[in-house]
Amino acid sequence: MAAANKILMLIVIIAVLFGTLATSKPIPGLDERTLPVLHVSAPRSGFFWAIKSLQNVSWWCDKCKPTDGVKINIKCNGKSVFSTTGTNAYTGQKDVKVDPKWAVEGASCAVKVSLSGNSHVFGISTPVIIVKTQE
Question: Which residues form the signal peptide (predicted)?
Answer without folding.
Answer: 1-24
